[in-house]
Specification:
heterodimer, A: alpha+beta, Nuclear Transport Factor 2, Chain: A, 2 domains, 5-stranded antiparallel β-sheet, two-stranded antiparallel sheet, elongated, B: 365 residues, mainly alpha, Nucleolar pre-rRNA processing protein NIP7 (chain A), Nip7_N_euk (chain A)
C-alpha cells in the first residue's frame, strides 16, 4: 500500500474529471474528514484517514481491500474507473450520457436524431421506477 | 504626624520583609529529597491537592509547583560558587539518581570458530609478555605489529633452501605468504562477524573458472564481472545482440504511507487547479528550446541565401536538397509543446517558394 505518485494522480484525476469536472476538489478536500487515495495491488482506494490508520496494521499480502475502490491501473498504467466509485461520483456528476455525435455534427443533424447515449446498468429501471413511467 | 508616617513606613517595611520571607521559606511536613546533580527535587508529601474529586485545581497545582521550585532553588543557592569568565557559577555535585538504560542489553554473541575450538579442547589463553627481546636490533620490541621483534619479511639475507628453484625470489615469496596470512585472517574475521549478525558473506562461489560451470553460473559470473569495474559497469560495452539486464535501475522511492495529509491535499488541489485552468501551461524549457532552434534555422537559411546568391547558375541542387530537410524538421518541431509561437512561421526565411513549403509542412500536420 502506498500513496499515488504525481503521474498516477494526474492520470486518475483526468479520468475522474471527465465525469465530475471541477467538483473533484470536493472529493479531495472534504469538510467532514480527511480522505485520501492509496494504491494497493494496482487498485486505487478512496479511504478516510481513520480507516487508513487501522488498515496499516494489516500486512500487505493479507490486505484485500480498504475504503472504496475507485478503480485500477492497468499494466500499461492507464486508469480504469470501476462501478464501485459510482456512489462518490453520482452526487457531483456533470452530464448523464456519452455524446453520440461530435459537436459539429450535433448542430447540423435533424431534430429526431440521437445525440446522447445514456448508459445505465440494469438496476436503473428499479431505481428510477417512478420517473421512467 | 511625621512620627506616625515614619512608624507607618517602618511597619510597612517590616510587613514587606515578612512577605518576602514567607515567599522564600516554604513549610513542608516532610523534607524534599534533592539530587542537585540532576537538578531534581522529589516531594514525598501526600498530595492533598490531588485528592479533590472533579477537575484538577489549576491554582493549587501551581502553588505546589512554585513551592517545590523555591525549595530547590534555595538548595542551589547553598552550593559552592565559583567565577567562570565573568559569571558566577554554582558547581553541581555528582548526580545520585541512577538513570535507566537507553538501549536494551546487548544479546550474547555466538562464539567464534577459534573460541568454540578452544572451549572444546580446553585450551586456556596463555599469558604472554607484551615486549620481546630482539637480538638483531638489540632492543625490546613488541611481539606482533609495527616494528615487531621477529619480522621475517624484513630480513636482508635469506638462504635459498636446497629443494627450491634457484630462480625463485625468496623475499617476494615471504612477502606473498604474509599477505596471504593477513587476507585469511581478515576473511575469518568477516565470517565470524557474519555469523554473529546472522548475515551472509558475499561469496565468490562460482566466480573461479573451473571449466565445469553451468550456463547460469557462467551468466552470474559474467554479470558480477561486468559490475566490478571502477564505474560500476556503466561504460561496459555489450555484445551486438546482447540484451540489457533487467531491473538494474535505481529502486523507486515512494512517499510514506501516512505522510502529511495537509501537504498531500494541497498538492492535489494545486494539480487540479492547473488542470482546470483553461489556458495551456507554458513549458519554459520547451519554449526556449523551440526559440533557439528557430534562431538556428534562421541562421542556416541566411547562409543558404548567401551561397545561393553566390552560385546562382549551378546552385539548383543545393537549395533543392536543403528544401527537403526543411519541412520535416518544422513538422516535427510543431508537434512538441505549445509555447508562444503557434501560428507564426519562422520569419525571414525568404522566398515565396520556401514560404509555401513551410505552409505545406504545417498543413500536413
Amino acid at each position: 500500500m502506498r500513496p499515488l505518485t504525481e503521474e498516477e494522480t494526474r492520470v486518475m484525476f483526468e479520468k475522474i474529471a471527465k465525469y465530475i469536472g471541477e467538483n473533484l476538489q470536493l472529493l479531495v478536500d472534504r469538510p467532514d474528514g480527511t480522505y485520501c487515495f492509496r494504491l494497493h495491488n494496482d487498485r486505487v482506494y478512496y479511504v478516510s484517514e481513520k480507516i487508513l490508520k487501522l488498515a496499516a496494521n494489516i500486512s500487505g499480502d493479507k490486505l484485500m481491500s480498504l475504503g472504496t475502490c475507485f478503480g485500477k491501473f492497468t499494466k500499461t498504467h492507464k486508469f480504469r474507473l470501476h462501478i464501485t466509485a459510482l456512489d462518490y461520483l453520482a452526487p457531483y456528476a456533470k452530464g448523464f450520457g456519452v455524446a453520440a455525435k461530435s459537436t459539429q455534427d450535433c448542430r447540423k443533424v435533424d431534430p429526431m436524431a440521437i445525440v446522447v447515449f445514456h448508459q445505465a446498468d440494469i438496476g436503473e429501471y428499479v431505481r428510477h421506477e417512478e420517473t421512467l413511467t | 504626624m511625621e512620627g506616625q508616617s515614619v512608624e507607618e513606613l517602618l511597619a510597612k517595611a517590616e510587613r514587606d520583609e515578612a512577605e518576602k520571607l514567607q515567599r522564600i521559606t516554604v513549610h513542608k511536613e516532610l523534607e524534599l529529597e534533592f539530587d542537585l546533580g540532576n537538578l531534581l527535587a522529589s516531594d514525598r508529601n501526600p498530595p492533598t491537592v490531588l485528592r479533590h474529586a472533579g477537575p484538577t485545581q489549576e491554582a493549587e497545582l501551581r502553588t505546589l509547583a512554585r513551592d517545590n521550585t523555591q525549595l530547590l532553588i534555595n538548595q542551589l543557592w547553598q552550593l559552592p560558587t565559583e567565577r567562570v569568565e565573568e559569571t558566577v557559577v554554582a558547581r553541581l555535585p555528582e548526580p545520585t539518581t541512577r538513570l535507566p538504560r537507553e538501549k536494551p542489553v546487548p544479546r550474547p554473541r555466538p562464539l567464534t570458530r577459534w573460541q568454540q575450538f578452544a572451549r572444546l579442547k580446553g585450551i586456556r589463553p596463555k599469558k604472554k609478555t607484551n615486549l620481546v627481546w630482539d637480538e638483531v636490533s638489540g632492543q625490546w620490541r613488541r611481539r606482533w605489529g609495527y616494528q615487531r621483534a621477529r619480522d621475517d619479511t624484513k630480513e636482508w639475507l635469506i638462504e635459498v633452501p636446497g629443494n627450491a628453484d634457484p630462480m625463485e625470489d625468496q623475499f617476494a615469496k615471504r612477502i606473498q605468504a604474509k599477505k596471504e596470512r593477513v587476507a585469511k585472517n581478515e576473511l575469518n574475521r568477516l565470517r565470524n562477524l557474519a555469523r554473529a549478525h546472522k548475515m551472509q558473506l558475499p561469496s565468490a562461489a562460482g566466480m573461479h573458472p573451473t571449466g565445469h560451470q553451468s550456463k547460469e553460473e557462467l551468466g552470474r559470473a559474467m554479470q558480477v564481472a561486468k559490475v566490478s569495474t571502477a564505474s560500476v559497469g556503466r561504460f561496459q560495452e555489450r555484445l551486438p545482440k546482447e540484451k540489457a539486464p533487467r531491473g538494474s535501475g535505481k529502486k523507486r522511492k515512494f512517499q510514506p504511507l501516512f505522510g502529511d495529509f495537509a501537504a498531500e491535499k494541497k498538492s492535489q488541489l494545486e494539480m487540479l487547479r492547473v488542470m482546470n485552468s483553461k489556458k495551456p501551461r507554458l513549458d519554459v524549457t520547451r519554449a526556449t528550446n523551440k526559440q533557439m532552434r528557430e534562431e538556428d534555422q534562421e541562421e542556416a537559411a541566411k547562409k543558404r541565401k548567401m551561397s545561393q546568391k553566390g552560385k546562382r547558375k549551378g546552385g539548383r541542387q543545393g537549395p533543392g536538397g536543403k528544401r527537403k530537410g526543411g519541412p520535416p524538421s518544422q513538422g516535427g518541431k510543431r508537434k512538441g509543446g505549445l509555447g508562444s509561437k503557434v501560428n507564426s512561421g519562422p520569419p525571414g526565411l525568404g522566398g515565396k517558394r520556401k514560404g509555401g513549403q513551410h505552409q505545406g509542412g504545417k498543413r500536413r500536420k
